[in-house]
Specification:
This protein is of the alpha/beta class and 246 residues long. It has one domain: Alpha-Beta Barrel (TIM Barrel), CATH 3.20.20. 38% of the residues lie in helices and 15% in strands. It has an eight-stranded parallel barrel with strand order 1-2-3-4-5-6-7-8, surrounded by six helices. Helix 5 links the parallel strand 5 and strand 6 (151-155).
């Protein structure tokens, strides 16, 4: 499965065409799905262009994208940078009037279990975000409901391609007991090397302007759809082994 991550916590200073508003997210989602994306992850924004978990912003973004790509799962973030207090994040999740199909929860953040419990109570699928070089894997595996997540996001934060490949292997090893599907991805200069590794292992992966702003040849990416097309080309060419962590 190839997920597109449309915007992330970035703003337009990083990319002139970064989708922020609901209609922009809808157009970007439609183009990315036409290019081959099978799932969508986005960050709803407030009127200043900052990430927010506020119910109105979540409803507007999810509704617009669903209308543009009916039948495609749509997910949002619950990152602590949007609302630092975990209890407040859980309260916001419980206040959502339009529910996404899934939401990411970062397990290195305080209160991840509380936020995840709020999502489970609303019937929202959980993407468990496990960052490399953190204690997130152990914290997640110790959570009594870890078996109930939709998938695990193995998120490689190292940006040197060689270091990222090594970190990805270590991260996958730490998640070897996980029964849920694993989505492996990297960021910035390491995004494409980690995507190749995911393709080789037969794992789900993702690409989009949240993770990387350039194409594999180093040129600037015009938009999310261009990144998705490049990812599909890599996935088509890379020999597939298996999804077993090594």
């Amino acid at each position: 499965m190839l997920q597109v991550c449309l915007n992330g916590a970035r703003d337009r200073t990083s990319h002139a065409h970064l989708p922020l508003l609901p209609d922009e997210l809808a157009r970007a989602a439609r183009a990315a799905v036409d290019a081959g994306a099978q799932d969508i992850h986005l960050h709803p924004k407030d009127h200043e262009g900052l990430d927010t978990l506020e119910a109105g912003a979540v409803a507007a973004a999810v509704t617009a994208v669903r209308a543009a790509v009916p039948g495609i799962p749509v997910g949002v973030t619950t990152g602590a940078w949007a609302t630092p207090d975990p209890q407040d994040r859980a309260i916001q999740v419980r206040s959502w009037t339009v529910l996404p199909d899934h939401a990411s929860v970062n397990w290195h953040e305080d209160g991840a279990g509380d936020v995840a419990a709020a999502l489970l109570s609303r019937g929202v699928g959980i993407e468990a975000g496990i960052y490399s070089t953190t204690q997130a894997a152990g914290r997640f595996l110790g959570w009594p409901h870890s078996h109930r997540v939709l998938r695990v996001l193995a998120e490689v934060t190292e940006t040197d391609p060689q270091a990222a490949t090594r970190a990805a292997a270590d991260l996958l090893e730490s998640l070897s007991s996980v029964a849920s599907p694993i989505l492996l991805h990297g960021e910035d200069a390491a995004a494409w090397s980690v995507l190749r590794l995911a393709a080789t292992r037969g794992l789900d992966t993702r690409i989009g302007l949240e993770d990387v702003l350039h194409l594999p040849d180093g040129s600037d990416a015009p938009g999310n759809a261009d990144l998705v097309r490049a990812a599909h080309e890599i996935m088509r060419r890379v020999p597939h082994t298996d999804a077993t962590p090594a």
